[in-house]
Amino acid sequence: MNATQPSTCYGNPTAEKIGMTFAYCMIFLVSLAGNTIIGIIVYKTKTMRKPINFLIVNMAMSDLLIPIFLIPRDIQGFYINSWLIGGPLGQVLCKLVDFLPSVSFSVSIQSLVLIAVDRFGAVVYPLRSPLISSKLRPFFILATWIVALAINSPYLFAVKLVEYPGGLRCTLHWKEAFGESSSYQNYIVSWCVTLVFIPLLLIVTLYITTYVKLKSQKIPGEQSANAGQQRQQRERNVLKMSIAIVLGFAACMLPVAILWLLFVFVSDIWSSCGFQYFSVVAFFMARTNCAMNPCICFIFSRNYRMGLKTLLDK
Predict the structure, then answer these.
(1) 271: DSSP letter
(2) Are 286 and 254 in contact (CB under 8 A)?
(3) What is the DSSP letter of 168?
(4) Could you tell me which residues are beta bridge partners of residue 159?
(5) pLDDT the model gives residue 130
(6) Do 118 and 130 form a contact (C-beta atoms < 8 A)?
(7) Is residue 203 within 8 Å of 116, Cβ to Cβ?
(8) Cβ-count burial of 19 within 10 angstroms (0-12 exposed, 13-18 middle, 19+ buried)?
(9) Which of 124, 130, 241, 279 lies at a 20 to 30 A Cα distance from 156?
């Protein structure tokens, strides 16, 4: 499934290529700079070293895989429809371009689940020890990468660089890698259910519960009212940022998940111009997510804005 494949559906292909190139270059720059700065701010600011910020950094580091590996290939694909690098290096890059963006998505959705769990614990059980403690945090973060690498590892075996009459192509050879009895369609459906729909349903449930609990909380005693109100305001601000990240992720990634399912269940849908327009938008939205997260952090979090100001002042 290639978002850059030529089509007779477009009226002015040259203008659209230039426009898409500009848009993808902007995503590349914002994502590369924004996610790197998020990591630097949390690393250099001791007060920012909290579970939620480490999980946001985990997302940021995974999001860096998109501008580094995928977007340059997308931009090249607007103009040249063949693979430019041959030999062992080309074979490795071909596999990584399919594999690592899927890993990035998988790490992000798991990080969002952990952020939702952290917010749920902080609001619903404020007097108990954190559900994601400082000791368990490295384990959870490492687990997101291990699970992501394992789930998406089939791409390392099924994607190959093959020479065709028109040049080198990086293509999927699922049955050749896993046998005739194996189905790529079943893998895609399982992937979408496991890494898109179930996690988003869990996240929505946790945030609804957290929001209801936060709204119903009462501050006991006049002396503690100020401190309690300040704590509640902090929790609300963090909750707003967390929900904004989830909504941005869902808006960017659900279209491409729907696209994959349509690809599985409607075999002749590629001939439709409407579907091709939708595929271009879906792929573009999926790329946009890696640039959106740092923007949301700076918009919703005063701490991230102050950290950015401190970096710029140096």
Answers:
(1) G
(2) no
(3) E
(4) 172
(5) 77
(6) yes
(7) yes
(8) exposed
(9) 279
Question: So what's the pLDDT on residue 6?
Answer: 44
Question: How is 89-155 classified by DSSP, letter by letter?
Answer: HHHHHHHHHHHHHHHHHHHHHHHHHHHHHHHHHHHHSTTSPPSS-TTTHHHHHHHHHHHHHHHHTHH
pLDDT given for residue 183 in this prediction: 87
3-class state of residue 78 by DSSP: helix
Spell out the domains of the chain, with CATH numbers in brackets.
Answer: 13-215+231-313 (1.20.1070.10)
pLDDT tens digits, 245-279: 999 999 999 999 888 888 777 767 666 778 888 88
Element (H, E) at 46: none
Q: Amino acid letter at 247?
A: L
Residue type, 106: S
Look up residue 49 and give its amino acid.
R
CB-CB neighbours of 223 under 10 Å: 8
Q: Identify the burial level of 15 via C-beta atoms within 10 angstroms of its C-beta, where 0-12 means exposed, 13-18 middle and 19 or more buried.
A: exposed
Residue type, 69: F
d(CA 229, CA 197): 35
Contact 65, 104 (CB under 8 A): yes
CA distance 108 to 102: 10
Specify whether the CB–CB gap between 71 and 4 falls below 8 A.
no
